[in-house]
């Protein structure tokens, strides 16, 4: 494969900046509706996707300090969006689970992303939509 040109990189950069802005707006709207900052929203989504995970698992995934993650989890517990459960096998370990209210907030968050994607796909014809999805998945699956 050949290297992309500087102009291609610049065009894609501008396009992704606009995409990112749309997703940030959708994420911020969902978070604001639930009085969550972005870190708390991302923490809740991870816990919802990984019931029984630990604080360190979330911190590692989001690449934040353990103390920062502990504070985020504390806020989510106080809002009754997340529950902590001590593990019988290791009383020092805590498993995190989203509550029913937390799962509803996660669904609202996901709906915001789906709406942003729907808005972008509307501007394309069906064949272009499939091509965008195929190419996006190819890029997302590329680990290098």
From TrEMBL:
One of its GO terms (biological process) is response to stress. It holds the Pfam family MarR. SUPFAM superfamilies: Winged helix' DNA-binding domain (SSF46785). SMART domains: HTH_MARR. PROSITE patterns: HTH_MARR_2. GO terms for molecular function: DNA-binding transcription factor activity. Residues 9-141 form the HTH marR-type domain. InterPro entries: HTH_MarR-typ, MarR/SlyA-like, WH-like_DNA-bd_sf, WH_DNA-bd_sf. This is MarR family transcriptional regulator.
């Amino acid at each position: 494969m050949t290297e992309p040109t500087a102009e291609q990189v610049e065009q894609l950069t501008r396009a992704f900046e606009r995409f990112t802005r749309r997703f940030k707006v959708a994420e911020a709207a969902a978070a604001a509706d639930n009085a969550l900052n972005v870190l708390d929203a991302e923490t809740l989504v991870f816990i919802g996707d990984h019931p029984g995970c630990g604080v360190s698992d979330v911190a590692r995934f989001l690449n934040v300090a353990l103390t920062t993650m502990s504070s985020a989890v504390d806020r989510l517990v106080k809002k009754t969006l997340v529950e902590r459960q001590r593990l019988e096998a290791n009383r020092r370990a805590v498993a995190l689970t989203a509550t029913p209210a937390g799962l509803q907030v996660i669904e609202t968050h996901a709906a915001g992303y789906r709406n942003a994607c729907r808005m972008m796909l509307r501007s394309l014809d069906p064949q272009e939509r499939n091509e965008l999805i195929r190419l996006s998945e190819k890029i997302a699956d590329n680990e290098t």
